Structure formats: structure tokens, C-alpha cells
DNA sequence: GCCATCCGGATGCAGTTGCATCCACCATGC
DNA sequence: GCATGGTGGATGCAACTGCATCCGGATGGC
């Protein structure tokens, strides 16, 4: 159980961290230069747009984005303060709320996507063929599978 | 220049961020549970051990780890406060300093590695064959290549 | 020698994260 | 109906990050 992993695994691990650091840094920097908010805003708004008028409960959004509860709570604070999101009480559950994206939020998504996509293309796509990207995506997916069961 | 990247690239991008988040989170959590400091400490000490008695200048360490200058400055503060690293003035350059790892720092590296390696194995190795890990490492390496030159 | 500039490194401050805890409300047993 | 425990979400506080700036020493022009 505590066997040392093969070199290739350690190499992949190191590169995973570094590549993500590098590409994310470059992409976020581009977006910031263009005057856009952090990517977390984009992700949250994207989920909310996908949910449509029904909206999402904060805990659902928390599950969809891999984000800690307190962290999401404060992200929603900021999104609401900026007018991208509306918090409404739930009829069904007095403790909870429903989050829905506003027009303004949709507009932000629409404005960000071209810049975001271009940045992804520049910092990721430019380094890979389409086939390589597909292979990479498939391999990374393996890492997202549920953790290996203890035999 | 602002072409939308193909779906496979976007898919790889999303999975890159999520996979790193997931695996890093799991690995760091394991190390923390075992009472160890954050991985940044390990990385820094590893570089310093590699440099041996000659040590490293902070700006060299900054380059080796992808870490902002002010950030490194404070990481070194913490490492020094914990006795893992020694700051000494440079004879060659009055502004600078040389960082060297202490016995205690080496001991920490030695203590952390088994736990770290086991965590990598569990959260990364368990999901991939060795060949897949090698492919993944190679693909991620492409992302670390210098940015594409503007034609 | 003297000045302007640059570079290595530190630091004050604001914004963000992690952790622990708290509050309110739901659900269950009785 | 009321105590008990669980769940959704917020928040005080300490740690950490990013940014801008600052300081002191090096370097180059003259």
C-alpha cells in the first residue's frame, strides 16, 4: 500500500502541477488584463446559466464546482454584490436559498467567452494537436474517476 | 488569432484544472493529516538539497519553483523560522543572500517522502498504467514548452 | 567620483482562503 | 409538542496571496 510509485507516475504528477500552474496563470493573466474577473466567477455563472430559471441551491453549485462551502458562500457574496446573481429564499426549505443568474451575469459570460477561448487556444491548443488534446483529456479523466477501492 | 479552440482542447483544459485540483487536494490532505507542512515546503527544500552546501540564491529558487518573488521571500521566512533553512549573506553580492538547507530540513524531506510517494501512488498511480503515466507526462510536457512564437 | 538606473529582496496593505464554529431550520423519535 | 440530531449556509479569525512600493547595493555613463 505504501509502495513507491514508478518514475513515470511521479513525472506525470510533477508535470500535472506545473502545466496547470503555467497555463492557468497565463490564461488568468490574459483575462485580468482584459478587465475580467477571476475564472471562478465564470465557472459559477456557467453552471447557473446551465440551470436556467430554476436556479441552483448553493450546495449544488458547491458540488458542481469543486469548491469548499465557506468559499462558495463568499464567492456568491461577491457575485451578488456585482449584480451577476440573485439570491432568493426557497419556499421548500427555510434554511436554503436559490441562486439564479441575472441578465448582467449572462452578459458577463458572453463577454468573457471569446477572450477565454482565445486564451485557452493560445496557451493550450497551440501546444497540442487535436488528437493529442483528446488523448490528454482521456488520460486526465482517469484521474477524476472515483478513488480506487481498497481491495 | 482569436479562433475558438477545438472541443478536445477545451475538454483537456477543463480536465487539467479539475484533475490537478482533485489529486493535489487529496495528496495535501493526506500529508496534513500525517502532520506535515504544505508541499511548497517540500519543493523548496528539495531544490535546496539538490544545490548542496553551495546553497541557492533566493532568485534562483524562485526560478526553480514557479513562485512569485514576494511569495518566496515569505516562504523562506517560514522555513527559516522553522529551522529548515539558513539565510547567510553573500560575499559576492551585498544585497543578496544564500539559502542552505539544514540537517533539520533534510530530516523533514526524508520523513515526508514516503508519505508523499504513497499519496502520489494512491491518488495518481492507481488510476494509470505505467505506460499511460508516461504518455501523460509527455503530453503535459508539451504544455510546459515555451509559448508559441507569434508568426 | 557622481549620478541615474537596475536588480535582489522585504514589507504594508487589501483581498482571499482555510478552519472552526455558529445559527437557523428541517427531520426524527417519543 | 418537544428534545435530539442532522443539514444548509454564514462568519470571526488567523494564515496566506497579490500588488505596489520601498530599501539598499550593484552597475554603467560621464
Structure description:
The structure is a homodimer of 151-residue chains. Chain A has helices spanning 7-33, 39-51, 58-64, 69-81, 103-123, 130-144; strands at residues 85-89, 97-101. The first copy, chain A, has a domain at 36-122: Orthogonal Bundle (Arc Repressor Mutant, subunit A), CATH 1.10.10. The first copy, chain A, has 151 residues and is mostly helical. Chain A has 6 helices and 2 strands. Chain A has a two-stranded antiparallel sheet with strand order 1-2. In chain A, helix 1 (7-33) packs across helix 5, helix 2 (39-51) crosses helix 5 and helix 3 (58-64) packs across helix 4. The model of chain A has no long low-confidence stretch (mean pLDDT 93). The first copy, chain A, is globular and about 55 Å long. Chain A starts with 6 loop residues before the first helix and ends in a 7-residue tail after the last helix. Chains A and B meet through helix 1, helix 5 and helix 6 of A and helix 1, helix 5 and helix 6 of B. The structure holds a DNA duplex (30 and 30 nucleotides).
CATH class of the domain at 36-122 in chain A: Mainly Alpha
The tally of beta strands of chain A, per DSSP, is 2
- Average residue pLDDT of chain A: 93
Could you state the CATH homologous superfamily of the domain at 36-122 in chain A?
A: Winged helix-like DNA-binding domain superfamily/Winged helix DNA-binding domain
Q: What is the helix tally of chain A?
A: 6
| Backbone shape of chain A | globular
Distance between the termini of chain A: 10 Å
**Share of helical residues of chain A:** 55-70%
Structural class of chain A: mainly alpha
User: Which oligomeric state applies?
Assistant: homodimer
Strand line-up of the largest beta sheet of chain A: 1-2
Largest sheet of chain A: 2 strands, antiparallel
Low-confidence stretches of chain A: none
Hey, which two chains have the biggest interface? A-B, 54 and 54 residues
Could you spell the SSE succession of chain A in H and E letters? HHHHEEHH
Report the sheet-strand fraction of chain A. 5-15%
CATH topology of the domain at 36-122 in chain A: Arc Repressor Mutant, subunit A
C-alpha Rg of chain A, in Å?
19 Å
